[in-house]
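Field reference: sequence -> structure
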Amino acid sequence: MRKLWISCGETLPDTDRVQFILNVLKEGAPFLRELYIGVNARFAHGADDVLEISQLNVQQLLCFTHLTKLELENVTVDSCLQVLRHLGDQLYSVILTNMYINMCTILNLLPTVTELTLRNTRVCLCDDEEEVVLEFSGNPKPQTRLQKLVVDFTVPLHMVEFIFQGLPNLQHLSLGHGKHRYSHVGSIAGLTPPIWSRILSTCNLNGLVNLRISVLYQPGLHPDSQVSILDYEDIAELFNRMPALQEALIHRRDYVRYGDSPTFPRLEETYGTSRDSRMINYADF
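Structure field:
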């Protein structure tokens, strides 16, 4: 950051940098629509290297009345919630990185959001981060505008039940970190095949186009959880329950809808370094 300001012939102060930068933006870009605030994970020295956004900074942010897309990275939880309480009504896209916040609280603070992403980059640096389950407690308000939801954390069962029934306009849904594909951790805490069948039976995601759940079942919770790949019937049921679904990464495998028939999804396997999209007809097995 300092090098950037030097290249522009400016001097970045040693203190109150957020206040200084927001003042510059207020004067030079009053119609700002997108903004990133935070400590980039590549330059953070640890989990405690987080940014505090002051009440003065929040008042500065309120001047950006055209701001609709906000990204916060490695910001204190209290700071994040303070910002969302004041700006939530005007935001359409929000990305929160490395913040463990009650998902129900986030949804209630963002009534107009259409895209919401909770990124988790620490899980790539520390295996213990895989065990963290995102909190979801309280009474979430009805959400009819949310179209894209990405959560890079293990999520609780009741959160999944809410998503599948209470977010009817979702088009893209991703639960769990991609690293889960290579570990024993499930993307949905406590999920078993019978519970998954029940969730699908009440699914209200009729417009969902893309679904990503890296690992459905954690081994040991149920006799049928000890599977490395889902049966064809399970995949066919998923595509039947979600009529608009075109692509799905489910339990370590990628699938796409084949033609107009929901009962013949195609399995996409990776051979070497290239992607082979040949169709595998399960009727032959």
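Note: Residues 17-28 form the longest helix (12 residues).
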